[in-house]
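Design request, tokens follow.
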């Protein structure tokens, strides 16, 4: 083998973009080193990106037949293989097709613990695109648990739920985002987003209960107090609306007068 290939060829192939020359070298290398499963998987991944599914399937089958140690990686590439093919079909023809069923089965077969963070994010997005909103939201919550900025994932879950008209679940997800941020401006942002989601679903009582837990943070904020007063009015809670109105009147105006 070393008489044919330079010693650094394997590393070079792993870092090269797949073109006709690289592909020919990979094929020649794998004939000489058929047990280089990592390179074979890399080759399959690149072939999937290029839409050369039959060739990719040949490489995946070779790895699967040779070793059980790459099951999770083969399963992940198979999902990408199915998903890319499915997305190439006209949207109206996707649902109900055999490929759609196979892709859903492949999604459910993924082992979350075996995926890296980028793959987990891709899995969540594929799940959402295939219409499984509840599972996508669960994935977003799992991503939040390990994220540097978990609020981003809670907000993403909330946005998706809001788009589906799940106002209570959306409000709770925005509330979760508020709980994990420390900056006052971002807390205020999520506080208002929570109220808006709940009010969009006419869940005034739930919105007022949420507001009551955090209103003490905003007793000096005219914008928030006015928002809460209007919310209480909309929810028919005139006593709570009056309480917010009194606090508003007690705040000094811009000139420092009450």
């Amino acid at each position: 083998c070393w008489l044919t290939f330079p010693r650094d060829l394997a590393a070079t192939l792993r870092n090269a973009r797949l073109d006709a020359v690289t592909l020919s070298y990979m094929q020649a290398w794998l004939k000489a080193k058929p047990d280089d499963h990592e390179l074979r998987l890399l080759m399959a991944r690149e072939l999937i990106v290029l839409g050369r599914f039959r060739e990719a399937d040949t490489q995946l089958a070779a790895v699967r037949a040779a070793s059980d140690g790459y099951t999770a990686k083969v399963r992940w590439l198979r999902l990408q293989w199915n998903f890319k093919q499915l997305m190439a079909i006209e949207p109206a023809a996707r649902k109900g097709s055999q490929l759609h069923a196979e892709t859903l089965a492949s999604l459910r077969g993924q082992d979350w613990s075996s995926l890296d963070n980028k793959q987990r994010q891709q899995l969540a997005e594929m799940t959402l695109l295939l219409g499984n909103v509840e599972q996508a939201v669960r994935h977003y919550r799992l991503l939040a648990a390990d994220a540097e900025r978990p609020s981003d994932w809670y907000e993403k879950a909330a946005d998706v739920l809001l788009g589906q008209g799940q106002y209570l679940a959306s409000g709770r997800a925005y509330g979760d985002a508020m709980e994990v941020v420390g900056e006052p401006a971002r807390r205020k942002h999520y506080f208002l987003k929570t109220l808006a989601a709940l009010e969009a679903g006419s869940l005034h009582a739930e919105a007022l209960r949420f507001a009551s837990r955090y209103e003490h943070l905003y007793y000096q904020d005219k914008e928030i107090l006015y928002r809460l007063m209007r919310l209480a009015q909309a929810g028919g809670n005139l006593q709570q609306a009056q309480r917010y109105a009194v606090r508003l009147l007690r705040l000094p105006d811009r000139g420092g007068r009450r």
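Comment from the thread starter after seeing the answer: thanks! The chain has a mean pLDDT of 87.
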